[in-house]
Every structure is written in C-alpha cells, then in structure tokens.
Amino acid sequence: MSGFKKLYEKAVAMDRVNVDTDQIIPKQFLKRIEKTGFGKFAFFDWRYLKNGEPNPEFELNYPENQGASILIANKNFGCGSSREHAPWALQDFGFSVVIAPSFADIFYQNCLKNGMLPIQLPTAEVEYLLKEAQNQPYFLHINLEEEKVEDDQGFTATFTIHPYWKKMLTNGWDEIEITIQYSDKIADYEKSVTQN
Amino acid sequence: MGKSIIDKIWEKHIVHREEGKPDLLYIDLHLVHEVTSPQAFSGLRMKNRKVRRPDRTFATMDHNVPTLNRYKIDDEIALNQMTTLEKNCLEFNIPLAGLDSPEQGIVHVIGPELGLTQPGKTIVCGDSHTSTHGAFGALAFGIGTSEVEHVLATQTLWQTRPKTLKIEVNGKLAYGVNAKDVILYILSKYGVNFGTGHVIEYTGDVIRNLSMEERLTICNMSIEGGARAGLICPDETTFSYLKGRKHAPENWDKAVQEWRSLVSDEDATYDKVITIDGHDIAPMVSWGTNPSMTAKVDGKIPATENYQDETDRRALHSALSYMGLKEGMAITDIAIQHVFIGSCTNSRIEDLRQAASVIKGQKVYPGVRALVVPGSQKVKKQAEEEGLDKLFVEAGFEWRDAGCSMCLSMNNDVVPSGEHCASTSNRNFEGRQGAGARTHLVSPSMAAAAALHGRFVDIRKMNVELQATT
C-alpha cells in the first residue's frame, strides 16, 4: 500500500444520515472472493433504476459530481454490517477520503486498513462543506501530516487522527508485518496464560 | 477505584502496551465464516504466512447456505465462496462445521451452543453481530477482513481502549414483553449511534432475570446502537447453560471459580450511564429503515413535527417513502405478507418455543408466507424432538435448515420488492431482505402473532399462554 500524505481533489456531497454498509455495497455482491472490482456495485440500489439505467436523481450520478475523490457525508456514516467490501467499493469507485461528523467504529477501522482516510469534523463544519459542495466544481486540500482540510474560499478545519494510524497511513505499512515483530511477546503472553 | 468487567477483561488481554499506540490485545477465540474470510486467507497465502493458532479458530458456513435442499446450490459464486472456505480450512488446519456437519449453523448460535463462547474471553469474527457472545460476559466484537487476516496471522489486534456505557434495566417486564422488545425500546429511545466508541454493559434486575437466549438477543443488537460490543456479567444462569457443552472447560470447577470474579465492582465507573424502567417497555415493531425507527405496538408512526432537526425530518420522509407507509399511521394497521422467524438475534430453541406457544392450533393468515429457520442444525434437531416443527408446519409455516437466510437474503430466501415482512432479525435497512423489501423488526411471539393475522397485533391482547422464558 502506498503512503497517504496530501491531496487536492474534487469533493462531492452525500447529505444523508446513517448511511449503512448495506447501502454502500448490497449483500448480493459479497459472494465474490476478491478485494477488487466492487466499485461498479457501490450504492447499487440507489444508483441504478430497476431497468439497470443510472438513476439520474442519485447525487453521485449528477454530471457535475463526476470525478470526485472526496466524499462529504453525514452522521454515523458506514453503520451496520462489518463488511470491508464497503471501503473496497468506495475506493474502487474513486474515493480516497470520506468526511463526516461521525463514523461507525468498524467502518472507520476498515477504511484505515485500506489506506483510505476517514476524517471526522464537527457538525457545523461538515454542514458548511455539504452546502459548498452543491456548487461544483468544488475542491478540497487534504493534508494528513498537518491534519487539515481547506477549500479555495478560505475555509480551514483541523481534524485529529490517532498517531498510530496516521503513521500507518502515511507510510503505507503492512500492519501484520509490524505485529510479527512482537511475536516473542505474544508467545510470552500465551505461556503466561497457560501456566495460570 | 473499582473496575468494570470491561476493564477487567481488557487488562487481562494486553500483550503489549506503549505510549502513542493502541493496545496489542490477545484474541482467545476467532470465529470464521465464508463471506468475510476468503480475502484474508488469500492475503496470508500471498505473504506465505501461517495461521498462528488454528486451535483458537473455528469456522462454519451460514450466510450463503440454502435452507432448502442444502446441497443443491444454484448460485455458482456462492458455491465457490463455500468451497473456498472448505479449502482454506483444510490448508490452514482450521476446524470447520461445514454443510454436512450436525454442528453447522449461524456462527453466533453455534459458538455458545458448542461451549466455545465463555466468560472472560476475547472473541472476534468478521461479522458485526459478534457482539452476541457478550451475553456470556465475554468481550466480543465484529471486525473487518483486514483484521480477520491480522488475527489469523498473529492472534492479536491493535485496539484503542473503548469507552464504557452502562445500561441498567430495572424493574420487571410486563406480560408479552421480552428481550427483543427491550433492545428495540433502547434503540427507539437512544438512536443508532449512542454506543459508538463504547462497549455496553447491560445490568439491572430485568437483565439478571433473563435466560441465556434472551441475553444473547440483547447483546446481539448492541451494534445497532453503534457499540461494537455489549456484555453481561456471568452468573449462575451463564454457568448452568455452559455446563456439559462440548467445548466447556475440562477443569470445570476451577473455570467457574475464575468466572465468578468477572463481575463489575460496585464502585466501577463508566463513561456514560443509561437507566431504563422495565415497566415502560411494550411489544415493539419497527416501521422505518433503521432499528431506531421503532414504535410500541399500540403506538403510531411519528409525524414530521415530532422531529426538530431538518436532516431527521428528511430521514423520516425517505424511510416512509421506502416503506410505503404514512405519518401517524397506527402500527396495528400495517399489513404483512411475509414472516421470518430466524437469524442470530432470534433463532434459538427458546425463540422457537416462544413463537410456537402463540400459534398453537391456529393457521397462518391466507396469503402470508411464513418461514421458520432454526439457528443451527442442533436447534433444528431439538425443536423436532419437541414436536415444534409439526406445530409450525400444521399451522402453515415452512420449516427449514439452519442458516442466516432471510436476515440478509444472500441465499434464495428473499422478500419481493414492495412487500412487508415481520422479521425477528436485527436490521431493517433498505434492501436488506431483498431489493425494495420492507422489513419490520419484532420479537418471535410478535412475528408469530402477525403470521396468524396478516398484520401486527398486540400480543398482550391475544389471550395466549406465552412460553415462560424466565
């Protein structure tokens, strides 16, 4: 996984609360055994009409919203099922950052493990972004190192991310590789528990 | 300062702690199923890694399995996923309760049933309803596929310490009210993200008096409130359930002695406390597209003016438009065409007994399709020994093999678009039971009652002798 540092990309709004992972990637697409290729199924039931045509009323189908890498979402984004297919689908769709006032815990973790950056900002700031992104093209600067989100109109917000995950994202490290360095400690723990 | 059971289990499982890092937590039990594991095994293979503790790993298949003609799987992609799990278990030496095993079933049903789930353990599975196992006083939570791979390779996870939330349910439950109503009531009152970042400890007289099956139902739906885990301190009910189970500890007395220390100290502190009066709870029915959109059976669907926030109002309108329902409508006016009794929330023997006690002698309402899907092949066998299958079939229910089935409809058990289903499962999300399907979450007795009447009825007015569960 390559490291994540900063980007300047188009941002689009999905102003809905409690978007669950069943919507992000419906169950019929979970039968595949690969990690790739889920983008075309992202938001399937919202995105396509019954006849298979794109739903023109779905926000990510608007012509002006095409080509975005940043998704601005609303509270409790990614709730429900633990399926990691959700970040796989969002990433394959083209998103590398999701901004929301709050995220479901498992979804948040799943993003980090895939080099995707979930940014939590206060509600008022997300509301501003949701509104601004109605006027496309709208671009945001994301700086992970400085933990900053900025637009070209002078908006600046700072976010926090656990230093461990920040390091992991910035360097694109393989987490298992790191943990394996603790193998002796794990073995010691196992020994101590068996002796008890 | 006193410690809660959550603190106690957490601290006992820390392998490594260091400033600026999450804790490296040891995982005692890793449950695996066919849907969220194939990419994890591929990851191991790519890096030439082994499974560190196959003896602490246990696999089954549940999400995809047919509940009719279980060996005839038409869906080639689903079949491939199941065959892949078989191959992976064989290659990495992991015990598997496959389709032909009498131990097969929903992963969160068989864990407790086989005695794998035990007090004080850390338990993970690539499934958000892993919170179920917390009913035994275990710290159990769902993980994504990357974490599945991490646990397979290292038997550990890097975890930031969660906040703690105590939910105290005091008093007593009225006739006709059960565990499912308790958790639906909590969600209806506090929403779908009050538990985010927290582990819940359920306590109070109502919880203490619940059977293991009922405790499992409550902990199961902790995730619907945003909490990755929810647990209940173990007690005599827990120990007597576990005694004699296949994987129960050999040194039983010593284990029970240890488990008895797994209680929260009286002066334990929590980040948040919620207190609920059991008398306030009624049989509940969900009307919307998330589990907090739930009302009492004698209540009404809310109206726009009940919400202050503009986004919440929009969520109400969008939910009602999806559900084909109207503001202010009485819950008992909602007609249903399907009934599903099953899922990791409500498919255990006691749930089936509860449903059966409602239907005795009566028939499923004309035009209603009603399914009973036992949570495991063992539950199925036991129910058949008790004659419950006959009772269901004579009433017009379909009696199926074990699996997740219509909870998420990954197999052929699907609710058609636009139709309503009274379901004992855990999620009423859009499309969950099929594209356009309209799900109403209820308890097993309320689902059975709806099956007989073709609409929701107040179980308290039915004059039935409900299966006593406590």
From TrEMBL, chain A:
Q: Which residues form a coiled coil?
A: none
UniProt cross-references to InterPro entries, sorted A to Z: 3-IsopropMal_deHydase_ssu, Aconitase/3IPM_dehydase_swvl, AconitaseA/IPMdHydase_ssu_swvl, IPMI_Swivel, LeuD
- Record EC number: 4.2.1.33
The Swiss-Prot or TrEMBL record annotates one GO molecular function as: 3-isopropylmalate dehydratase activity
Q: Does the keyword RNA-binding apply?
A: no
Recorded catalytic activity of this chain's protein:
(2R,3S)-3-isopropylmalate = (2S)-2-isopropylmalate
Pathway, per record: Amino-acid biosynthesis; L-leucine biosynthesis; L-leucine from 3-methyl-2-oxobutanoate: step 2/4
Q: Mind listing the UniProt keywords for this protein, alphabetically?
A: Amino-acid biosynthesis, Branched-chain amino acid biosynthesis, Leucine biosynthesis, Lyase
SUPFAM superfamilies, sorted: LeuD/IlvD-like (SSF52016)
Aconitase A/isopropylmalate dehydratase small subunit swivel domain: from which residue to which, for each copy?
1-122
Look up keyword Hydrolase and say if it applies: no
Which family does this protein fall into?
Belongs to the LeuD family. LeuD type 1 subfamily.
Instruction: Give a short account of what the protein does.
Output: Catalyzes the isomerization between 2-isopropylmalate and 3-isopropylmalate, via the formation of 2-isopropylmaleate.
Q: How does it assemble?
A: Heterodimer of LeuC and LeuD.
User: Mind telling me what this protein is named?
Assistant: 3-isopropylmalate dehydratase small subunit
Its lineage opens with:
Bacteria, Bacillati, Bacillota, Bacilli, Bacillales
Report the gene name. Answer: leuD
